[in-house]
Amino acid sequence: MNIGILGSGMVGQNLGAALVRAGHRVVLGTRTPHNVDEARGPASKSLGDWLEQTAGRGRVGTFAEAAAEGEVVLNATSGAGALDALRLAGAANLDGKILMDLSNPLDFSRGGLPTLFVCNDDSLGERIQAEFAGVKVVKTLNTTNTSVMSDPGQLAGGDHTIFMSGNDAEAKRQVAGYLRDWFGWTDVIDLGDITTARGTEMLLPLWLRLYMTLGTPMFNFKVVR
Ligand SMILES: NC(=O)c1ccc[n+]([C@@H]2O[C@H](COP(=O)([O-])OP(=O)(O)OC[C@H]3O[C@@H](n4cnc5c(N)ncnc54)[C@H](OP(=O)(O)O)[C@@H]3O)[C@@H](O)[C@H]2O)c1
After folding, report:
1. Engineering a disulfide at 44: which of 14, 40, 75, 186 sits with its beta carbon 3.0 to 4.6 angstroms away?
2. What does the pLDDT look like over 186-221, one tens digit per residue?
């Protein structure tokens, strides 16, 4: 499958590498596709190093190229930059497609632990869906660390939970299949329409505090019923 990933940070690189290993072709989108030598954030490699491990099945392109070439598109851009990145990707390149939205509305501008720049009665997932009405936005994977996202089996044999929110039932059915087949997620809870992204985005303050308390990002939520 051809998969477009918007985002060149640790999430885009990690999921892109996992998808390439699983046999998919990936275009990783960035504003600066010709600048592959620079490290992309503290925990991510340069895109040149990323490309090397993809054995020809990965490519670095613009956001528009990643959106156009992806049969499915993943949004792994910063929360604050997500709408701008999607505008660069272009509605025409995204229309009719599933957009798996992994982004969180984190505001780092005040220093210390980030706060949420939208919450409670709105969410970033809803803002994306409202502006890109022709896109099937499915919010998912935003409640766990990227290493767990791509390999849930590392923790408790994979017996823990990931959430989905979106307006299109068929798109969510497909996304549940992608989450299982690409990464091994077995407990995928469909929370309902895109307004339910408020709940998963608002898990972030708890996630961040757990990260500090436990001293590791290698944990996840499990819904016991
Ligand atoms: N890190 C995790 O484990 C984790 C877990 C769950 C969810 N998330 C969420 O996943 C997303 C990606 O996280 P990350 O740590 O990989 O990277 P990040 O540093 O949050 O985002 C990097 C990407 O955002 C793009 N970007 C930033 N500002 C932009 C702007 N104004 N216009 C257009 N694009 C812009 C960058 O574009 P360029 O490539 O052009 O620089 C880059 O591709 C975030 O929303 C984060 O909250 C992360």
Report:
1. 40
2. 999 999 999 999 999 999 999 999 999 999 999 999
- Token pair belonging to 81: 């930059």
Q: H or E element: which one contains 142?
A: none
Which of these, 59, 125, 126, 128, lies nearest to 87 by C-alpha position? 128
- For the chain, what percent of residues have pLDDT higher than 90? 95
Give 16's contacts (C-beta < 8 A, 6+ positions apart).
5, 26, 28, 50, 54, 58
Mean pLDDT computed over 27-46: 88
| DSSP string across 47-60 | HHHHHHTTTTSEEE
The best mutation among 11, 30, 144, 206 to test binding of ligand 1, ranked by most ligand atoms within 8 Å of the C-beta, falls on: 11
Q: What is the pLDDT of residues 3-20, one digit of tens each?
A: 999 999 999 999 999 999
Return the structure tokens found at 205. Answer: 């303050």
To test the pocket of ligand 1, the residue of 78, 116, 142 to mutate (highest count of ligand atoms within 8 Å of its CB) is: 78
Global pTM reads 0.98
89 CA distance to ligand 1 middle (Å): 14
Tokens representing 47 are 């895109």
